[in-house]
Amino acid sequence: MFCDSRSNKVLDFYRGSTVLVAGGTGFVGKALLEKILRSLDVKKVYLLVRKKCGVCAEDRLRQLLEDRLFDQMREQVKKVEAVEVDYDLECFGLDDDVAEMLQKEVESVFYCVADVSFNRPLKEAFQTNVLIGKYMLKWCLSFPNLRSFVHTSTFYSECTKNFVDEKIADDLPFGSYKLCMKMLTSLSSEECENIRDSMLGDYPNTYTFTKKLAEIMIQKEFAGDLPIGVYRPPVVSPTYREPQPGWTDNMFGVGSFISSKFDGVGRVILGDLNQISNNAPLDCCVNAMLVCGYDVSLRRSSCCQSEPELTVYNHVSKMSKCTNGDVLRYMAESRSSFWQRWDWKYLFTSTTTKWIYYYLLHLCYWYAGLKDLVTVRLKGANGRDHYHYRRSLKHFASYNQAVAFAMCRSWSSYNKNLINLKRHLNEKELEMFYFDLDDVDWPQYIKSCVDGISLLLHKQL
User: Fold this and answer.
1) Where does the record place the Fatty acyl-CoA reductase C-terminal domain (predicted)?
2) Which residues in 173-315 belong to E strands, given as ranges?
3) How far is it, in rounded angstroms, from Cα 314 to Cα 164?
4) Is the pLDDT of residue 206 over 90?
């Protein structure tokens, strides 16, 4: 049974409220900001933005809002205000008056800060994925009107297990949470690299390990004091419906495979084509985050326990049978010409054996180098164009190797905490905040992704 059609639970929760977004200039944060402005009648949105490459926060916000993503909401963007921060400092180096203003006004926080480069040095990944989050949560303890805090983690924080539950366990491979925190805080970057393999254990990279560590930190140090929930998406890919089908601003995820196909150099894949593909469209992720924010507040207000349980939301499909091979087939079928369909469908191979993969990849680099040479000879290309195909293949191969752990196996999981939220939504909100991955039309979606990547590549030429 769904709730009464006259009751807009999520819309009413955010109406007239002040929202703070940390990490709002990234892929997920940008789409989250757009959805808030387009669908929610909020009072104000504060965006925490770092000064980067000499560009101040206000100028970075101005550049962000120039994206075609915000073309239809030039009036609403007036609600957005950039707040310049230094994430390396507690309270982020804010002036006292700015910090006090945010403490008084902010009611909902969405935390999207992350270093998604999977194999950063351990110390660097720890500082970004754990310490900054800890500083943020400590600061939020001083927010008297805080109603919800949604921390964006990853489904792969539990990738060492066969079954991913909606719970957090202190079962780090190197030892206890306190020991890991103490060592990573006190040791130098070089010393952390020396113990990296021992500390990671079965974790495939520093990204998944530090996201797991951050979840334990939240549970042990803040779950009893803050209205907080942990949202776990899988691989986030281009949009499904909103604001435009297939929108993306990067070449990661599905986009990496599609762009390599356009260049004709992505001929070998490290992965199992029979395993289920764990992708979540960006707009489904954003919708889920907003509904999670409402649910976190609802659970907190109705909880009578002295230490409320931390809620974890796994965002995965329970019914989808779409495999990695299906994704590649849908990509091929999206092309209009017979040659491209044939080329994309048959002129590639896959393997889960690393030495075979690297041997075939070496041949692909030779082929990409030949294409670069021919292009230079025929078209007189210069500068970076000398390495266009090799650069494209390197990007594709680097990403493929990073996510191979997810492409070579599948997981069983619970997703009841998120799916049960559909019962809170009326028909209007179910349509507005769609997030159920079982409802995704995968062939149509992959076609939209191909079109979106094609448009992005055209803009970069």
Assistant:
1) 391-459
2) 228-232, 235-237, 268-270, 279-281, 311-314
3) 8
4) yes
Separation CA 365–CA 138 (nearest Å): 48
**Cα radius of gyration (the chain):** 22
At residue 6, φ and ψ (nearest 5 deg) are -85, -10
Q: Which range is least confidently modeled, 69-83, 155-169, 199-213, 423-437?
A: 69-83
Cβ atoms of residues 82 and 58 within 8 Å: yes
> Residues with Cβ < 8 Å from 379, sequence gap 6 or more?
none
Element containing residue 142 per DSSP (H, E): none
How many CB atoms neighbour CB 221 within 10 A? 15
Residue 410 near residue 276, CB atoms below 8 Å: yes
Structure tokens at 202: 């079965």
Range 117-142 average pLDDT: 93
Q: What one-character DSSP code corresponds to residue 161?
A: S
Residue 259 is inside which H or E element, if any?
A: helix 254-263
> DSSP assignment of 65-132, as one string?
HTSGGGTT-TTGGGGEEEEEE-TTSGGGG--HHHHHHHHHH--EEEE------TT--HHHHHIIIIIH
Q: Which one-letter DSSP state was computed for residue 203?
A: -
Strand partners, 151: 111, 230
Give the list of residues 6+ apart from residue 123 with CB closer than 8 angstroms, or none. 184, 187, 188, 189, 192, 193
CB 53 within 8 A of CB 29: no
Q: Give residue 386's pLDDT.
A: 63
Minimal CA–CA distance to 431: which of 1, 76, 5, 78?
5
Alpha helix stretches (DSSP H) within 141-253: 177-186, 189-194, 196-200, 206-221
* Domains of the chain and any CATH numbers: 9-246+278-319+411-441 (3.40.50.720)
Confidence class of residue 384 from pLDDT cuts 50, 70 and 90? Answer: low
In this structure, what DSSP letter does residue 55 have?
B
pLDDT digit string (tens) for 53-103? Answer: 888 889 999 888 888 888 878 788 889 999 999 988 777 888 889 999 999
Beta-carbon count within 10 A of 339 CB: 8
Nearest residue to 403 via CA among 455, 327, 318: 327
For residue 276, give the DSSP letter: B
SS3 268: strand
